[in-house]
Amino acid sequence: MLTQVGIVGAGPAGLVLSHLLARDGIESVVLESRDRDYVERRVRAGVLEQGTVDLLKATGVGARLEREGLVHHGIELRFEGQAHRIALSELTGGRAITVYGQQEVVKDLIAARLAAGGRIEFEAAAVGVDGLEEDAPVVRYRQGGQERQLRCDVVAACDGSHGVGRESIPAGAIALYETEYPVAWLGILAKVAPSTEELIYSYSQGGFALHSMRSPTISRLYVQCRPDDDPASWPDERVWSELHARLAMPGFALAEGPILEKGITAMRSLVVEPMQYRRLYLAGDAAHIVPATGAKGLNLAVNDVRILADALVEWYRSGRDDLLRGYSAACLRRVWRVQHFSWWMTQMLHRFEGESEFDHRLRLSQLRYVCSSRAAATTLAENYVGLETV
Ligand code: APR
Ligand code: PHB
Asked: What is the pLDDT of residues 64-75, one digit of tens each?
């Protein structure tokens, strides 16, 4: 098979890239190892920055997002049994977040690509990328029990944190910067109306909890747990009792409902530098991982491919390759800003095993400052809704 841009992975990064390239007449083929139903059902995060929403709407895949997305102009920080609202829009000149599940974004993009005649090969697992040294990349993939080849001008590895793209780069050509957090998140999807209008990030003696949602009838909730915890050690009663305890506040009642999905997410930070090797470009989780506390993973993936699409469009249009050569540097400015913000939110809102009472009181001081200083609240707000420039 032959195409201009070979894309590995039909997550937000791969699908947005294919969509943006098609708008400028650039052909691509997306190889996805899972089937369509799986990628459209996979529960992941659900907070879209202003910039992500603007891009999806401006490029014609925002109609359902506009109808069903929940626009929020604030979030709540809850600690010491009190609620503190961070007025996101007021502090950022009107910018907001939109709560809209990642799998809904994926569904909209797949539908739009296929309706436009785009090529997405499902159950097509890439096994390696050859020909990089000769600038004639070939993606080898397995589909229908056969090994096949996709010849292309460039490859975009949008294959997530365990993809083959990064593995195809000679070890010495990239560096990995990473850290792991000694906590994880146990997340549930529950069939119950959210007990809050806006997201609640809670810090309590028992640790972190988050009340998010997916729709007026579906809640998404998280509690911090041990990294080596097994979901089986978290029966529904325990999940709800921990949520009640960590979200407790006079006048607040948390409604319970049937748990539809339960899973544990590790918390780690990873950055790959550079995010490119010859004609192979890494984007999204293939290039960087952030802890979920800042709700940034999907938004960072979209930012990468927006930059990559612009660079490829210019390369195909004029032959200029300076934007392509500057791809990694352009992305990494925001990647490290977002890494810091996500690390900072994680430090500020979690309790870590073996820490001292001093650490706990220091964290309370940080939280009180963020909620009492307009300057500090603005820092959180502008990073949370997404910085326009970095
Ligand atoms: N061949 C083909 N497809 C692959 C391969 C492979 N060898 N390996 C992985 N994939 C597919 C996965 O099945 C997945 O659909 O690549 C896709 C990667 O998508 P994501 O993991 O969603 O990554 P990305 O598009 O970068 O989006 C980042 O996703 O995980 C969340 O929190 C993360 O929000 C962030 C967002
Ligand atoms: C979610 O809705 O799944 C969500 C929201 C905010 C976060 C992480 C996840 O920080």
From this structure: 999 999 999 999
Residues in the chain, overall count: 390
CA nearest to 30, candidates 159, 140, 119, 152 = 119
Burial (0-12, 13-18, 19+ Cβ within 10 Å), 299: buried
Alpha carbon 9 to its chain's center: 14
334 in contact with ligand 2, CB cutoff 6 A: no
Of 140, 298, 299, 307, the one to substitute when testing ligand 1's pocket (max ligand atoms within 8 A of C-beta) is: 298
Q: Is the pLDDT of residue 334 over 90?
A: yes
| CA 386 to ligand 2 center in whole angstroms | 14
CA dist 349 and 45 (Å) reads 18
pLDDT given for residue 162 in this prediction = 87
Interval 227-243 mean pLDDT: 97
Of ligand 2's listed atoms, the one at least distance from the Cα of 45 is 3
Rounded distance from Cα 131 to ligand 1 centre (Å): 23
The phi and psi torsions of 270 (rounded to 5 degrees) equal: -150, 135
Report, as an integer, the average pLDDT of 340-361. 97
